[in-house]
Amino acid sequence: MSATTTALSVIVVWLASTLGVIVPILIGHYQIQSTRVMRLLRCISAGVVVGVGFLHVLPDAHGDLSELSNYPWAFFISMIGAFAVVLLEQILSHSHTEVVPKAIHASYVELQSQSMRVANLMEFGIVLHSIIIGIGLGATTNKDEVVTLVIAISFHQFFEGSGLSSYVCLAKPPLRQMIMMLGLFTITTPIGILIGFGVTDALENESRTALAVQGTFNALASGILIHMGFVELIAGEFHRLSGDDARGPVKLEMLFAISIGAGAMAMLAVWA
Fold it and tell me: How far apart are CA 222 and CA 52, in angstroms?
């Protein structure tokens, strides 16, 4: 890939990532009273996260690691990633319960803390994968394939950015922390593209080390995202329902929104 094509790819992917991050913020600003809109956006985002984990990250990991061994290392490492999230959450939850006093607003503080943990873990998994796909794009030499990948990855980053941003907004961190978290997401894939462009020769050789590193990172990311999608995001949304919102039609609406997010990732899996 030429330097000009690399620069254009970086700009397009960065713009798509940034737009995805901004959309939930704008919706939250102009639809402050509409909890329904934000809930449905988070459900779509949860479907995106699950779809990314199953249909994008895990297959990439399996493709790399199956070149090295017949053992299903990708699925094993993915399982380890999910278990690691459970362990980390228990450690964080235990330390938090020792600090937060049992006061009137303790439940609200706990909700904010839980949402922040979800957002941090979600970002960790997404960032790992974003760097890897950026490296893959940067190392691509076929011009037609580059165009297809840029389009597909741009949509991919838009949806992932929307998903991450909607949960960061739910956590309501300080403005500086929010900017740092969302800003980090927007630059990870462009950084990966630049890395891929810089080490194209090494990656073209498909060395065992490169396959092992990429496959392991993607496998860990898939376990994190799949666990987060089902346990924290989807189950969390249904757990927050109360009163009239807990009726059957509302739940069906949420399931439909989740299927839209997962379906979008299923469509993108055709190209990337």
Answer: 8
Scanning the structure block, which residue is given the tokens 């927050």? 240
Model pLDDT, residue 30: 63
Rounded to an integer, what distance in angstroms lies between the CA atom of residue 217 and that of residue 272? 18
* Alpha carbon 206 to its chain's center: 26
**pLDDT category, 104, cuts 50, 70, 90?**
very low
The pair of structure tokens assigned to 159 is 């949806």
Task: With both helix axes pointing from N to C terminus, report the angle between 208-227 and 73-99 in degrees, rounded to the nearest 10.
Answer: 50
Mean of pLDDT values over 163-176: 84
Over residues 24-37, the mean pLDDT reads 69
- Beta carbons of 222 and 80 less than 8 angstroms apart: no
Q: Give the DSSP letter string of 170-213.
A: HH---HHHHHHHHHHHHHHHHHHHHHHHHTHHHHHTT-HHHHHH
Query: What pTM was estimated for this model as a whole?
Result: 0.70
Q: How far apart are the first and last CA of the chain?
A: 18
Helix (H, G, I), strand (E, B) or coil at 100: coil
Which amino acid, residue 97?
A: T
Instruction: Note the Cα 16 to chain centre separation in Å.
Output: 14
Q: Is the pLDDT of residue 68 over 80?
A: yes
> CA nearest 265: which of 166, 152, 186?
152
Query: Residues 122-144: pLDDT tens digits?
Result: 788 888 878 878 887 887 666 76
Q: Are 188 and 127 in contact (CB under 8 A)?
A: yes
How far apart CA 124 and CA 81 sit, in angstroms, is 11
